Amino acid sequence: MRYFTTTAGWIEVIVGSMFSGKTTELLRRLDRMRRAGRKVQVFSRDRRFAENAVVSHDRLHTPSTWAETSAEIEAQLKPDTDIVGVDEGQFYDEGLVDVCRRLAARGRVVIVAGLDQDWRTEPFMVMARLMAEAEFVTKLNAVCSRCGNPAIRNWRKAAGGERILLGAEESYQALCRGCYEVAVLESRQIEMFPAAPPKSDEKP
User: Fold this and answer.
1) Share of the chain above pLDDT 90, in %
2) CATH no. for residue 105?
3) Is residue 2 assigned to a domain?
4) Has residue 25 got a pLDDT over 90?
5) Which of 36, 102, 126, 189 is the most buried (most CB within 10 A)?
6) Can you give the residue range of the structural domain that contains 130?
7) pLDDT per residue over 117-167, tens digit each?
8) Angle between helices 125-133 and 95-105 (to 10 degrees)
9) Is 25:60 a contact under the CB 8 Å cutoff?
């Protein structure tokens, strides 16, 4: 019997809540690849911490290339790139799935990190589809900021508005399943019974 080998690459996906260490894990894997002599290229569309670098919450960093869309990732890929890293994958269009599939078929290893759900617990479909496509999926937990249990939810401190609001500790909390439900109830009570405006000392 004759066995055939291929030069196909693969896809790795790192997901979890905010503050769970997704970017840190992405950077760790990319650093290992560099130490092994592989050519690494990183893409992002997040400029919260730096213009041309991916930066984790614990301030680890690596140079990156700005890509507004998934098509720009493929267009800016260098011919000698072996390893492709994508941070904050949830910000990209669903074309990212096809881009990752094509890159893996051409022998590249693609590692994507991102949120699996928004603050309403609705899944980011691009990440859900990537998890279905990937050979390796890692789900990380944060620490609940209220009770210390494993956190899988993202709670936006100022509810409402657009689905995506760029921010960090000033805008979001990582919560466990139970504390998230409590936060939802608290938010509904505030909406139903808003605080009364302070009384004026001025006489009519």
Assistant:
1) 67
2) 3.40.50.300
3) no
4) yes
5) 126
6) 10-141
7) 999 999 999 999 999 999 999 999 999 999 999 999 999 876 666 656 555
8) 20
9) no
> What pLDDT, on a 0 to 100 scale, did the predictor assign at position 49?
59
| CA dihedral of 58, 65, 77, 42, whole degrees rounded to 10 | 0
pTM: 0.83
Q: Active-site residue numbers?
A: 88
Q: Which two tokens stand for residue 168?
A: 């960090």
Tokens 């269009």, residue located: 93
Residue located via tokens 């869309």: 69
Helices (H) and strands (E) in the chain, counts: 5, 12
Task: Give long-range contacts, CB 8 A cutoff, 24+ apart: 65-70.
Answer: 65/41, 67/43, 69/93, 69/95, 70/94, 70/95, 70/96, 70/98, 70/99
- Cβ count near 117 (within 10 Å): 18
Tokens of 177: 């399943």
Q: Of 115, 45, 51, which is closest to residue 86 (Cα–Cα)?
A: 45
